[in-house]
Design brief:
Its cofactor is Fe(2+); Mn(2+). This is Mannonate dehydratase. Its EC number is 4.2.1.8. InterPro entries: Man_deHydtase, Xyl_isomerase-like_sf. GO terms for molecular function: ferrous iron binding; manganese ion binding; mannonate dehydratase activity. The chain is α/β, with parallel strands linked by helices. The protein has one domain: TIM Barrel (Alpha-Beta Barrel), CATH 3.20.20.150. It is built from 15 helices and 12 strands. The strands form 2 sheets. It has an 8-stranded parallel β-barrel. Strands 5-6-11-10 form a 4-stranded antiparallel β-sheet. Strand 7, helix 10 and strand 8 form a beta-alpha-beta unit. It is globular. The chain starts with a strand and ends with a helix. It binds D-mannonic acid and manganese (II) ion.
Length: 365
């Protein structure tokens, strides 16, 4: 597995590239042009600027996350063709810069959804939290108000220009069913996968988070079965998934290790994180350690190891610990701890497979 780390860019992140450099085994930066709204073409010059900054610090930029899809594409409006053309140009520009994977999502209106960004745990750390009953009782506008007021930074999926048009967006989705969304996704993929393939890029859809409909908005990428359907929409290696254990794990029925084994070839990018799921369907993001949450992190890493996974992995989110002030879910410390936990499992599996490293052998250890 190739370890990567999400970074929001110079002046837009509390974490620095110098700090990331000191986390063992991180090879690449997962990045995006966060200042551009969904639907804009990403100019090659802006892409090359990020590439230079990252490469100067010894990182590759092979994975891009959150090349967001304009709502008109998800809604299937006649204007979608214009935005799809721009998306293709963006894919081409990213290909020219050496990008190999594009992570995106197809969730209507919202990207991830939480009710609390700083829920305190018994040890004093805070983390992102989802309260199921609250989402059912609160109206979306109130929740957006509460979350947006808590944000010092603009988060992907929660951009002000998107939230400004919330009423109009909800109206637009009123008669859009899950089947309509599937057919709009298929239309999009049929157009862009040939471009991605030509540019040597794998598209990797991120599962819906949480993996069920919210506020009456349909959601599709929620289960192993639906991932299978997505992969069949355009049956090509460039049509893949970002397997996010934290998103899919919110539904305990999801067999994530089974999905890894079934779809290994089509997973260019893995998000590995843990959450604790309660009986009432609330969930909180926890440390990566298995004992702290409900997700079988060891089983997941083992499944990747068994299938010979050579794709990219990132720890996804972390808690906020040691008084760190950072983007919600995107601090340095807990994500670095998560990486070390993942390496610990991976290295012990490698050692089992290959025997002790040559260095240890020569020391007769
Ligand atoms: C990410 C997603 O921070 C997160 O929760 O895993 O926001 C992800 O970046 C998007 O869904 C990808 O488009
Ligand atoms: Mn994720």
């Amino acid at each position: 597995m190739k370890m990567v780390f999400r970074w929001y860019g110079e002046g837009n992140d509390t974490v620095t590239l110098e700090q990331i450099k000191q986390i063992p085994g991180v090879e690449g930066i997962v990045w995006a042009l966060h200042h551009l709204p969904a639907g804009e073409e990403w100019p090659l010059e802006d892409i090359m600027e990020v590439k230079q900054v990252c490469e100067r610090n010894g990182f590759h930029i092979e994975v891009v996350e959150s090349v967001n899809i304009h709502e008109d594409i998800k809604l299937g409006l006649p204007t979608r063709d214009l935005y799809i053309e721009r998306y293709k140009r963006t894919i081409e520009n990213l290909g020219k810069a050496g990008v190999k994977v594009i992570c995106y999502n197809f969730m209507p209106v919202f990207d991830w959804l939480r009710t609390d960004l700083y829920k305190e745990a018994a040890d004093g750390s805070t983390a992102l939290f989802y309260e199921h009953a609250k989402v059912h009782h609160i109206n979306p506008f109130e929740l957006v108000d509460q979350i947006a007021n808590n944000l010092e930074y603009t988060m992907p999926g929660w951009e002000p220009e998107r939230l400004e048009h919330l009423t109009r967006l909800f109206e637009a989705y009123q008669n859009v069913t899950e089947e309509d969304l599937w057919s709009n996704l298929q239309y999009f993929l049929e157009q862009i996968i040939p471009t991605a393939a030509r540019c040597g890029i794998k598209m990797a859809i991120h599962p819906d988070d949480p993996p069920w409909p919210v506020f009456g908005l349909p959601r599709m990428i929620t289960s192993g079965e639906n991932i299978g359907r997505l992969l069949r929409l355009v049956d090509h290696p460039s049509n893949g998934i970002t397997l996010c254990s934290g998103s899919l794990g919110a539904n305990p029925k999801n067999d994530i290790t089974g999905m890894i084994k079934a779809y290994a070839e089509r997973i260019p990018f893995a998000h590995i994180r843990n959450i604790k799921v309660y009986e009432n369907r609330d969930f909180i993001e926890t440390s990566h350690r298995m004992a702290d949450g409900s997700v079988d992190i060891c089983g997941i890493v083992k499944a990747y190891h068994e299938t010979g996974f050579s794709g990219y992995v990132r720890p996804d989110h972390g808690r906020h610990i040691w008084d760190e002030k950072c983007r919600p879910g995107y601090g340095l410390y807990d994500r670095a701890l998560g990486i070390m936990y993942l390496w610990g499992i991976w290295d012990s599996l490698e050692r089992e497979k290959r025997g002790a490293s040559p260095c240890l052998k020569s020391m007769n250890i």
